[in-house]
């Protein structure tokens, strides 16, 4: 770690870095940033930077507000959008109390704690997110809702289109930040894009997602458009998901791979999927944390609404992608409920905890879904045993409230804060009179 610190201090000096931003997230997953002068970095490494935790969503109770942000030198990068004028660096931070204990409500610590539990069982957890978002002409909107930058569709090539330049600039910026991008393309909705990040360990991926959102927002501003990760910004159009591929490794060996097994999927992989299916409803208030998230889950367009798994079945909640011959290391499972607005630290912690529970308890994997689950009738789905995901945030909170797994993984403070914050959101939503009601009822009744 000392070597890494020295490297950061040397880089700051050599590149003439003028400001260093210390980044961390609140419980909802909003990025927080404080800029310090280069001269303060060494002190921040040794002592941390003090701040008032009670002013940050869910981080502390007001009577224990003093917290310290400790920059993680392994996450140092210079921010490419700041350019050559006043070069600026950034590091993610771990949050502690003044006596050096990890802050229980630091989302990064929640994930680290769950990763440590996996490590005790011999596993390293890798994730690979496919992040969808919309590009809009601006953040303001008229009676017809937000206006997308184009009317293109899935994989469309739009000559001279905003999205091309946007994706090229974003991908280059991400690569400059050391974040490898696997694919980028136009998605199914007008103005909708997808950029997929390369596989990495879950902590690095969660940090990368937070950086990714910032890069996408910055490039949009630079190009005179607006980017949103809202799960369902346009009614009648696809929502923005963050399908996440996952695998567990034991050393260099993929624990999900077994040669000759069905789909080359090991017993460990099958139990991991069973854990995800069993606990899907309990973790939904975190994987899909907004009122709007449920408009995506229940709006069709390949969003999963029912708890089942399948091989290459895009209507299932968990998918086992095609096996590529001689690529045993790439056997993985894909969780399709997660949306782009989730707090990645908490969501990854819960998905991992659910999968590990399946392995620990030896959960039995139900038969796979071979049909398009959307096209079945309710009674057919019932007969096949496909339960529904929660239909609303309110519904998801009821499941979460009774979940030992979620309470244990998040810790008491984060668990209680999420419930409180999200109940408030639901109450505010429920108290509204919407345009739909006025249109449907005002003249008729």
Structure description:
InterPro entries: Gln_synt_N, Gln_synt_N_sf, Gln_synth/guanido_kin_cat_dom, Gln_synth_cat_dom, Gln_synth_gly_rich_site, Gln_synth_I. Residues 15-100 form the GS beta-grasp domain. Its cofactor is Mg(2+). By secondary structure, the chain is α+β, with helices and mostly antiparallel strands. It folds into 2 domains: 1-105, Ubiquitin-like (UB roll); 112-439, Creatine Kinase, Chain A, domain 2 (2-Layer Sandwich). Helices cover 37% and strands 20% of the residues. The protein has 13 helices and 18 strands. The chain has helices at residues 2-14, 41-47, 107-120, 162-176, 202-222, 267-287, 293-297, 344-361, 378-384, 393-401, 404-410, 412-430, 435-441, and strands at residues 19-25, 31-36, 49-52, 66-71, 77-78, 88-96, 124-136, 181-186, 192-197, 200-201, 226-228, 242-250, 253-254, 306-307, 309-311, 318-320, 333-335, 387-388. Strands 7, 8, 9, 10, 11, 12, 13, 15, 16 and 17 form a 10-stranded mixed β-sheet that branches. Strands 1, 2, 3, 4, 5 and 6 form a 6-stranded mixed β-sheet that branches. A hairpin with a 2-residue loop joins strand 12 and strand 13. Helix 6 packs antiparallel against helix 8 (344-361) and helix 8 crosses helix 11.
Task: Note the main attributes of this structure.
single chain, 445 residues, alpha+beta, Ubiquitin-like (UB roll), Creatine Kinase, Chain A, domain 2, six-stranded mixed beta sheet, globular
